């Protein structure tokens, strides 16, 4: 699987190396090829030995872009906030069963939700864990983010049968990009290579529906069909995507 090794450079923290091996099953290497994790500055990043123009991929909840979206991105008027139901009940519990780089989870947590991030790809889960670690040290995030964001490293299908019942299950499965994908950002192209597509995405819907107490929300490209062929209760259009909302019960 791509991205499942880390480069043991001289400055790589020994404790982190042990954690990557024990917690995520990642392999150490002194000669990385293709996708690999490495240590730079004070962060864990994902690189590719063959893509020199591809910038480092990392989880940075305190980045300029993340901070701007959190403070000026529209707040509860954002489509994702409306879809999940945070305009009615800010303290919702949410399972983000396909967490990726955690960007949507950060938005939800910043609006008051308590989010469990589920990620099955070892390298991506390691990036999330490192992002959460650094966020716990950031003066703007440390007082609220750690208590609202929790990482679970597990396959989504497993997590959806074992986690405590949340108000909402949020699904954003990796969808195959259109062949003419010149508009797809370089980072997302790279991310597709690392995690592949979620070919089992349809199987997540019945598990999500069974687990959630209030609703299931599915993020989809505008051109994509309904997940598992299930017609939603309502749809909320975002700037570049839509959110299919499946309502089980009213938000108290």
Automatic annotation (TrEMBL):
Gene Ontology terms: cellular component: cytoplasm
Pfam family, one: SAM_MT
One MF term in the entry's GO annotations: rRNA (guanine-N2-)-methyltransferase activity
Gene (UniProt): rsmJ
Enzyme nomenclature, EC number: 2.1.1.242
Signal sequence bounds: none
InterPro entries reported in the protein's UniProt record: 16SrRNA_methylTrfase_J, SAM-dependent_MTases_sf
Protein name: Ribosomal RNA small subunit methyltransferase J
Keyword tags: Cytoplasm, Methyltransferase, rRNA processing, S-adenosyl-L-methionine, Transferase
Binding site for S-adenosyl-L-methionine: 103-104, 119-120, 172
Keyword Cell wall biogenesis/degradation: no
Transmembrane region(s): none
Catalysed transformations (reactions): guanosine(1516) in 16S rRNA + S-adenosyl-L-methionine = N(2)-methylguanosine(1516) in 16S rRNA + S-adenosyl-L-homocysteine + H(+)
Role of this protein: Specifically methylates the guanosine in position 1516 of 16S rRNA.
